[in-house]
Design a protein that fits this description.
The protein folds into three domains: 47 residues, Ubiquitin-associated (UBA) domain (Helicase, Ruva Protein, domain 3); 91 residues, Tetrahydropterin Synthase, Chain A; 40 residues. Strand 3 and strand 4 form a beta hairpin. The longest helix has 19 residues. It is built from eight helices and five strands, in the order αααββααααββαβ. The protein is of the alpha+beta class and 198 residues long. A three-stranded antiparallel beta sheet has the order 1-2-5. It has a two-stranded antiparallel ribbon with strand order 3-4.
Length: 198
Amino acid sequence: MISKEMVKALRERTGAGVLDCKRALEETGGDLEEATRLLRQRGLAIAAKKASRLAQEGLVEAYIHARGRLGALVEINCETDFVARTEEFQRLAHDLAMQVVASNPRYLRPEDVPPEVIEEKKRLFLSELEEENKPEHLWERIVEGKLERYYDQVCLLRQPFIKDEGLTVEEVITEGIAKLGENIVVRRFVRYELGERS
């Protein structure tokens, strides 16, 4: 028997609708963890369907921290002005601006990292491997792994989400797409720190 408390707990965790939560709990025999995973997978499917839709509405969110010493602006787009005005969308935009201030990403996604930066990182990683006397036949795989970890640090969409490090920023946006029913895109961001040179 699925209780109201179980549905409420899953809903608080995922933000999914009551009926979706109830169905997920029924399908997983009341297992909260499994139901959470199931709803996230369904959210990915929904997001994939909506990814090609045009997102030109939205807002620019600002977040200022440390008594005006740090700040960020994030442009986040959705499909309609109606969704842009919802509390859920505005909270997502605010969280993303906080993420930019806290985690200081340099790029939006790995494709945005300039080729010269990638080549410089590869050279650095290779020289480290030489110094550590790692077997040469493993270098390529090790360098790729190090590059992936670098992307996780410097690319906003790949970073662990500051409010739940079990999720990436991209996964949080995907959950937003599933909840709001529209494509959501982070268009650009900028972070400012007092006294920082550009």
